[in-house]
Each structure stands twice: as C-alpha cells, then as structure tokens.
Design brief:
It comes from Piscinibacter terrae. This is Bro-N domain-containing protein. With 170 residues, the protein is α+β, with helices and mostly antiparallel strands. The protein has 2 domains: 61 residues; 98 residues, no CATH class. The chain is built from 5 helices and 5 strands; from the N terminus they run αβββααββαα. A 5-stranded antiparallel β-sheet has the order 1-2-3-5-4. It is elongated, with a radius of gyration of 28 Å.
C-alpha cells in the first residue's frame, strides 16, 4: 500500500510538471519533462518488481514449504507427523551416504524410529542421528551434522514448544 501511494504521488508530480512544461514551452517543454518520469518512477518500479518476484516465489513454493530438503543438491523426502516427528526416507539416506541398509536389523534395533509407511521405509529424525553416529565415513559424518542442524534440531525444538503449550492437555 505504501508503494502504491508513493507511486501515485510521483505520477502526480510528473503530470503536474509535464502540464507546466507544455504550457510554458509547448512540445519542447513537454519533451524535457519526460526525463523526470525516468528519475521519479525508476525506484518504485524496481521495488514493485522485487515485491512481485517475492510474492511469486512464495506462491510457487507454498506446496512444498516445510517439506523439501536438499543436501548438497541431492533431494531428501521428509514428512512430519502430528507429534512433530520428522521422518526421512531411508532410500534417500542410503543413496547419500552410500550404504546398503539392512531393513530387518534396523526394524529390530529401532522399532519406534524405523518404520514402513505405504511400502516405503522411513527413519525418524532421532533414529537417523543414532544410525549416522555408527557410520564412520566422512560423508556420513558431514551428513549427520547437516541432519542435526537442519532437520532434527528444529523438530526437537518444535516438540518442546508444543509440550510447553499443552502440558495439561495430555
């Protein structure tokens, strides 16, 4: 709204100066006032384009907001359940750190944190950190640090906030 008001005031100034230029100098006065349009309207137009770009990006990314993660250009599928636990697709993890997963062993060792939903296996955020802590490759260590910072820690904070908000409702 502020941008529209600024733009309207600047257009008004330009029109007044153009009218005065026409009255005083005819076509030459009108032509010389055209430079004022460029000077006064350039900044608001650049701001308007910036705002439109931001709004378009916001609308374009709204369907994947909070659902898209990428580690070094490799996409990870992450879903969040109603308890704010983030589940990371196990095949994405295996592809990134270059290991073969033993699904039976993982299901036995982590019954709450390694599950199958719709024929796809998923790590919970905390279980993934435990799994990655046992990996010794440099890529797995870097990936663990990234998962901690970008996926697990924010989810943990969100769970803590939810527990603070509704301690008596459980």
């Amino acid at each position: 709204m502020n941008l529209a008001l600024s733009f309207a005031i600047r257009i008004g100034i330009c029109l007044v100066v153009s009218w005065i230029g026409w009255r005083l100098g005819g076509p030459y006065g009108l032509g010389s006032s055209l430079a004022l349009y460029g000077v006064l309207l350039a900044h608001p137009l650049v701001e308007l384009v910036g705002e439109l770009r931001g709004k378009l990006r916001e609308e374009a990314f709204r369907p994947v907001e909070g659902k898209f993660w990428s580690y070094k250009g490799r996409r990870l599928t992450v879903i969040e359940d109603e308890q704010c636990i983030r589940w990371i697709k196990a095949l994405d993890v295996a592809r990134i750190i270059g290991v073969t997963l033993n699904h039976a062993s993982l299901e036995q060792n982590h019954p709450q944190g390694y599950r199958r939903f719709e024929n796809v296996t998923w790590f919970s955020d905390e279980t993934l950190l435990l799994f990655l802590a046992k990996q010794s490759s440099p890529e797995a260590i870097r990936f663990r640090n990234w998962v901690e910072k970008d996926i697990a820690f924010p989810a943990r904070r969100l769970r803590e906030r939810l527990a603070e908000v509704s301690p008596g409702s459980s």
